[in-house]
Sequence to fold (860 residues):
Amino acid sequence: MFFNSQNYLIFFTIVFVLYWSLRSQSARIWLLLAASFTFYAFWSQQLALLVAGTTLMDYLLARGMDSARSQRVRRLLLGTSLMVNLGLLVYFKYANFFIDALKESLRAAGGTSSIPYLEVIIPFGISFYTFEAISYAIDVYKRRIAAERSLPRFMLFILFFPHLVAGPIVRAGDFLRQAARPKRFSWLRFQLGVEYFLFGLFKKMAIADNMAVYSDPIFADGADLATMSTTTVWVGVFAFAIRIFCDFSGYTDMALGSAHMLGYKLTINFRMPYLSRNIAEFWRRWHISLSSWLRDYLFIPLGGSRGGHLLVARNLMITMTLGGLWHGANWSFIVWGVLHGSLLVIHRLFRAFCEPRTRLTALLDTWVGHLLRMMLTFMAVTLCWVFFQPSLARSLAVFDRLATPLAYSRTDAMTMFIYMAFLFALGHLIGSWSRYRELLARMPSPVVGGAYAVLLIASLLLAPAASKTFIYFQF
Amino acid sequence: MALRARLLPAFRLLYRAPRHSPAPVAKSSRRRRTPRQAMIACASGVAVYLILHAAMVGLFRSGTMLGDPVFDRRAAGLEKRLKKYATPDGKCIVLFGTSRMQCGMMGDVIEEELRDKAGVNAVVFNFSRPGTGPVAYHLQLRRLLERGIKPEHVVVEVFLPLLQRTPEGPLFESKVLASFRLRRNECELAERYGIDADVLHRDRKAVETNPWQNLREPIFERLDPRLLPDGAVLKYCRLFDRTGGNPVDFSEQWLPRIVECNAVADQHYRGMLSGSGIAPEARRALEEFVALCAEHRIGVTLVAMPENATFRGMYPAENRLAVRQLMDHLCRIAPAHVVDAESWLDDERYIDGHHLFRAGAERFTRRLCEDHLIPALTAGSGNTQ
Fold:
């Protein structure tokens, strides 16, 4: 059940009406829990039970940690929680990747292996809810938060359907506080939710799905890159950069909108990332819930920015490589992570180089400097996206093709690409304009309502006949 | 140095650092909406959506704007040309066929040939569309007559796969008839030729439930057909020149694709051409089409379009004979001319064995005029194969 499907609209409407017709907060929590379980069970009932089972275990372990006085017991409980959560993640998501790597290594060494591949279905959203559970366990262990006493509230923290499948990765402290608070229906909040949802729908259906028409043929297995013009391949790569942003941020907006309509506020995940002036800023604006998770639970424990360049570089490389691996059990995602890690290290070194050079710093801080830095960052990120694919061989082939102009060129229809890229750029510019919200608030309400209707109609009208699944659902 | 000293402040002014770097977060507005305003915004959003939805369904039901924009644009194009070029003794010639005729027969060449070689002033318009057959020709002719356009002559393509049934049952062209957005009386006509009524009515129902997604094709066809996300071939077929055709220019870029196109044509048509013969519904549709032409005193030329040797080789002898016999049979119902142009051109004229490049189209059109259309238009009816 995708957020942009009719099924979700019906499902959400029923949940919404029932939710606000209930008076008791605990009844509402139970309703949301049941709805979330149903939402997940649409894909797989067994996996829904698995998710519920691990959540129950996390709840019990955290309670144990909270009440235990001995540090050793607490550490043991934390270790168990991490082992089980990471063990399940590795089993479902990475086992076959490691088996494959082992087989390849043995083959390279001249040996043979009869280790069979595991026949497992990866539970949807496992990477997201595992990280939520881990952060909760660590926060309870470090006594940043107290263990949640209410089982339904805790289960809702993990299973809440708007963020269950593809985030944003919420922190227990933020969510549980909201779950405990009694809620009253607010038109303001409802309107905000509608606004988020409609923007997300437009990003997904009108922009991301249309960009897929240009990017999919480039990255599809078996596509013959030799018959494509260099322009087509470049357009496909740019289309993918736009698509992945609109697809994921569109999903997040719909999740945020759904949550707002039910009285919950989830973490913002994107802040116009393609306007970043350097790669470090990009990671402060892109998939914020993941990057902040990696910062808090991996980069800082590793030593963070303390120490010399070499140490920080090591920390960055480890964090980003694991961040890449988090996305998918494939060498291409690891390469993607390594590339981003390297870019962050280069940026750090360049920043250190610029610091004593005031004229260079001043030059980089001009309008032209900002623009060039934005363009450079966007180009670097776009080229890295080439590796954000399930096949490393394919990514390398695309990379090779980007650098090899062919005499033969096929002109494909670019109209939709141009229109959508323009809309995308316009959206980024308007979004980064600090006063647009104020302007929106000054508009007469019927005009705002009319704009919502137009946005919905545009989403339906511009969407290609075949809708694409959300890219981040595979993670 | 002096120049530099003078220019530097200007340079600094031009490229000075922005006072505010792009804000990562939109600042919260000072003026906030009230709950009442929020409620009005949501309610008016629903109201506007419902009004626009109803308006769209109304437009669709009336069949005025969103019926069949491809036909409407063509009919409007023909009307415009008639108004501009028609003379009292002039002729209006309409071409009906598939994509093969859309790129293979050139209206402007026919006009030129008739004017230069027979002194006939004609306005020609190509109504050919991909995947269409006798039911579509019949419907389009009726629509033209309803609009008050009565051609003096029609040139009709006869192509075996479009006279056959699909494995699912109805005629092959039933797949494209949905894009014709048939009106209720037209649905009845289509049903008479075995087109599944359920499919036609289901399509109407889908439009009324979600007009935006189901009418996106006609809407975009009106706004900008290049926005349609279909394959390049379909897009190309929706675009047409001032006489309704769309001849394809040959260029070096086509060379690597021709083999691929031939393979696709082979895969697509081999089974159809060697399959079962002509469906009775298709035969009836053609008979009634020819009879309708006779009733309105419209001359008819039936054409088997040029094909290369490989493509021609895909027909078994009995199927070729069946097509030939059908054309002869139609000539007995009403005065019509039969043109068998299958082997008129050499093999390098084709994109994929049966769609012509511009040069081939021009050559074929000139010969068709010289050998058949001029005698037919100047001397009346008769079999001029």
Remarks:
- Chain A touches chain B through 60 residues (CB under 8 Å).
- Residues 6-180 of chain A form one domain.
- Residues 94 and 329 of chain A are 5 Å apart (CA to CA).
- The mean pLDDT of chain A is 87.
